[in-house]
Description:
The structure holds two protein chains of two kinds.
Chain A: H1 2-8, E1 34-41, H2 47-57, H3 63-76, H4 93-98, E2 105-110, E3 115-120, H5 128-136, E4 140-146, H6 153-164, E5 169-175, H7 184-197, E6 205-210, H8 234-240, E7 254-256, E8 259-264, E9 267-273, E10 278-280, E11 284-288, E12 292-301, E13 304-306, E14 308-310, E15 314-319, E16 330-333, E17 340-350, E18 356-357, E19 361-366, E20 369-382, E21 389-390, E22 394-395, E23 400-412, H9 420-423, E24 424-428, E25 435-441, H10 458-467, H11 475-500, H12 503-529
Helix pairs in contact in A: 11-12
Chain B: H1 6-24, E1 28-31, H2 36-48, E2 58-61, H3 68-81, E3 85-88, H4 91-95, H5 105-124, E4 128-130, E5 147-150, E6 178-181, H6 189-199, E7 210-217, E8 220-223, E9 238-243, E10 254-257, H7 263-272, H8 290-296
Parallel strand pairs in B: 1-2, 1-4, 2-3, 4-6
Antiparallel strand pairs in B: 5-6, 7-8, 7-9, 8-10, 9-10
Amino acid sequence: MAALAKLKGQPAPAGQPHPANDQGQSTEGSARALLRFITCGSVDDGKSTLIGRILYEAGAVFDDQLSALDSDSRKFGTQGAAPDFALLVDGLSAEREQGITIDVAYRYFSTDARSFIVADTPGHEQYTRNMATGASTADLAIILIDARKGLLPQTRRHSFIVSLVGVRHVVVAVNKMDLVGYDEAVYRQIEQDYRKAVAGLGFASIDFVPVSARDGENVTSLSGLMPWYRGPALLPLLESVVVVAEAEVEAGFALPVQWVNRPDLDFRGFAGTVAQGRLRVGDAVAALPSGRRSTIARILAPSGDVSQAGAGQSVTVTLTDEIDVSRGDVIASLAHAPTAQQELRARLLWTGEAALREGGEFILKLATSTANAQIVRLHHSVDIESYAETPAESLAMNGIGLATLKLDRPLAVLDYARSRELGGFILIDRLSNQTVAFGFVESRTARDKPRSVAEAGAAGRAVLRLVGWRGAQERRAWFEAASWRLASGLFVFAAVALPTGQWALAAALGLGDVALRPLLKGLHARLWARRAPPALYDGAGI
Amino acid sequence: MIQLSHLQKLEAEAIFIIREVVATCEKPVLLYSIGKDSAVLLHLAMKAFYPGKPPFPLLHVDTTWKFRDMIAFRDQTASRLGLDLIVHINEEGVRAGVNPFASGSRLHTDVMKTQGLKQALDKYGFDAAFGGARRDEEKSRAKERVFSLRSGQHRWDPKNQRPEPWRLFNTRKAPGESFRVFPLSNWTEKDVWDYIALENIPVVPLYFAAPRPVVRRNGAWIMRDDERMDLLPGEQLETRMVRFRTLGCYPLTGAVESEAANLTDIIAEMRASRSSEREGRVIDHDGSGSMEQKKQEGYF
């Protein structure tokens, strides 16, 4: 516990100057100190079994928990009388009964070399949002592949989500090697397939380990059963991974104001966690989005007054001038202030039960700010199997797409690639209060193609409105819509033709209905979209 | 670039969560259970609002069976920090004569703790309650959110929890619904003790080994804290050097034999231990999945 020993030398009286904090204190120093990782894979790939096995082998399972595991294994286990390690992590009764993982479970353990926080995430597509949640704070992802099954659609989906939320390191654990006779050819084929599948996702490292989680082969030590494998076992590999540091931003700090601290008339401080950069007493700052200027007078850290503070620290700052700053504003260095935007382009991971539609209005929460947001355009959806961008009119649950959102007030934002704090957001349904999307701000890049319905040109637009886009996740919905349009056209045709006997007129009206109805629906939706959403106030329980 | 230590990161995360509640909820309260986790939580709350004081009261749901040392420490802490302390006792339960001996641990905990807590939250209309629970304590707690939404009847629905990506908490709720908020979610027992040592946080003396009057009952060392505990035939009161890893109602909390009388020794002992801290809790052994059930019924 070197970190503690070093820290102990620092006195921490609240309210006293704290010179030790002024040196960039490197108490952990190495990038190997703490590793947050997730495990993902398809149903029954053995994720929970693998984590249970790692916890057990790392000595993180206490004796009383082991004895509980023994009795649980007899009751729920799938391994006969042998301990079923999955039961160490599947903590909910429903999970134990069904033998599946529903929700993220966080586990904490350490070895001599490193401490770990692991999020065991569900494999079922239905629970993808829980998987994405686990990934959002992870440094590394273990992707499990069942050696018997090879790559599955879920493997590609998980890999995509992992890359979307910014995880840079992947370890592919090819599990259940015992069930394929520890065959090197099977392993090599999967390695080749996976590399090919994720070539475009931009991971900083991809490692492969053949394992048997159930029997503990290649988990903590190298297995004698797979002499052809030359790499390290899984746990030693995790201990040695060096996490790529996020770009260090020294210039240009940003402090999203979380709460205004006014204990008495003499003190007015702005409390929050520094999102990026380093701030110092005396720095010239701007409050966004208003742009009002001031200078930092004091910085209070948890240890007391300090002269500077950096990303990740929770602080309370005071300014030299009485300017209007409230929750949701961002105090930023004057020289490098992010721009306040009222229109955002962002990737969305849809987590709502009801599908996303253009024109939908939601509450957007980004850092500490809240705004009303309307989805004005859905540019495309991403086919999770081919990673191809496909034009789409809607996103169903677990769908991923690129959209433009219009806000009712400007917010200080950065690209997600530059700042998770100022580039990641959630959308909340105002009636159910459910979180319906994770958002990732993404400015326009050169490779973007104009693919939205609105940008497709007049002729193309008419055709598209008529038949709908064939987004991969929307295939069923598209067929349903198409057959409905056809049926309603036939109905008009029959309704006119049968009483009047004028077949030509009936055909024209029927065809007209097929063509015009979607157009009218589109125009009608636009009309409603113009109505401005009501204003929101901060602190109103939002 | 300022590198934060593991504990500084946990500290910053907890302070962020505490401030987020105050900024977005109308009437928060801190569930103060007097133990080490509550001590850390309270210390963090003091830091979060410095130079002001936490803008919420402390609530202790008193089962009337806590160790006397805990009650003394509780009152002393509230007055030392100058905070409002609400003590709630389920008087119906007291009138009905519910106690851990005659009623059994399960009924006692349900009536005096779970029902008592719900009564207090309803009585004062708190819409957010901080708790010191950690995910590493128990399997169903490992699945708990930081902002855990409870229905108007205080029920937890583990199958339908809101996702919490990054540090973005969806703090919206319908009228009548409330949050249980756990700022120490990502802390481990070791982190808690390391932080207590680092920050010099006062804790109840029962955590430190001392000679105490105990009896062996159902395989655990139970301390006889007052005359309400009758000795069963064959039981003998003896004085042993013991301490407690967790604190609850004294008849339901097993002591461990130990010589660890200071923080350094406690931390060393914890590292060498082969059993979890909740082993001494009688209520946790009421059947596998019992914590989940208690939580669904409104227990913390």
